[in-house]
Amino acid sequence: MAFALLATPGLTAPYAALVMDARTGKVLHARNADTRLHPASLTKMMTLYVAFEAIRRGEITLDTKVKISRKAAAEEPSKLGLKAGQRIALRYLIRASAVKSANDAATAIGEAISGSEAAFARRMTRTAKALGMTKTTFKNAHGLTEKGHMSTARDMSILGRHMIYDYPQYYNLFSRQTTHAGVAQVRNTNRRFLQNYRGADGIKTGYTRAAGFNLVASAEKGNERIIATMFGGSSTAARNARVAELLDMGFKRAPSSAALRKPALPAYSGEPKVSDATPKVIKVKPTVTAVAKSFRPTMRPEKAPSAEMLLALVDDVTKNVATAIEEVAAEVKEAPKENVTEEVQVARAPTRPLVTPVKRPEGLVQATLEPAPEKPKPGTRQIITRASTSGGRHWGISLGYHVTKHDAERVLLQTALQEIETLDEALRKVANKPRGWEANFVGLTQDRAQLACARLSSRGISCEARGPAG
Q: 25, 58, 79, 423: most buried by Cβ count inside 10 Å?
């Protein structure tokens, strides 16, 4: 039977399991679910959850270059093989942690966000409490065995559910069979289960000698999504077989239709609370808080000013100039001769008499390139405005080459959102070139392409404007 595994004497660590309906959070099966055990690399789910939270709040970006410390580089395998002093984008550290379960990458993430792994582990624990993970304490970012570093099957299931619904834009990382982590192509530690269980799309494996073989897995079939968590497997194959049974059990017990009730985001736990009994001064770096909804500015109307408005402006300017000339002439006439400065004497002896501008004739209208609704009356004069001939949309800009098409498309989307003022009407285009996938915006005028590149370059984004022959 399916439960024979529970009594198998070969298990290297205590067994625990929990099955949850992800849509509602309802527990469908539990065994030793509240026993505090070693989570191993399931820890990295919280490392990544805190990283996603920091990105959402503007504390760090996916493109931030993280300097690898000696501590991070010295972590035990599994590891990406980072070197002390090396700099690598945060996005690659996230990929290596999620897919390869790299310990050096996880430590580097913690140090980049909180300054040290110990401070980051405290933030992980605070975040766990905010999520309702009441029996979890973290001591490091990677999950290697350490005194006091403990969790439960129930708490890890809660974390898995929050990862799925709180950050769906990143959840696909856990289903990638392989991915590029900046310095190497890495393979998913959970690829066998992903390949063999229909509907499985994540999320994280874990193994240490003290923990045994652990797994938090999620699968979706139709309208149903189940999360199954297991601690204490004796091998990868035994763990995968048992988790498959747990998921099957979940799909049988879960209702075919249930209203989705997404969990609420936890309270922000980035900085510790200061106790009234022991006051401390904590310096907090300013953060940019993401707004719930960003409204797009209203576009400036393209309609040209009316003829009446142009005439009114011209009349105002004419009156102001005439008034200024009359005032200067009056000052020159009234000033005593002995006190007249050189400049005023020049004004008193103009080479030509001052002439008051003639008032603009009535009936003057403006002609535009648009067909006029009525022809101007006979005898009226017209002001002709010439349309610009430099508006051809044959220019584009290049944002460089990327390893995958997905990377290039993501860079284009992020850049379009950052520089919406100049790139709103541009088309995004990814081209497969020998050097990689090139990210381009096309369909721009020369002025708009050069302006967009200048603005992007000021933000440190590499950009090249290209003309029709580019």
A: 423
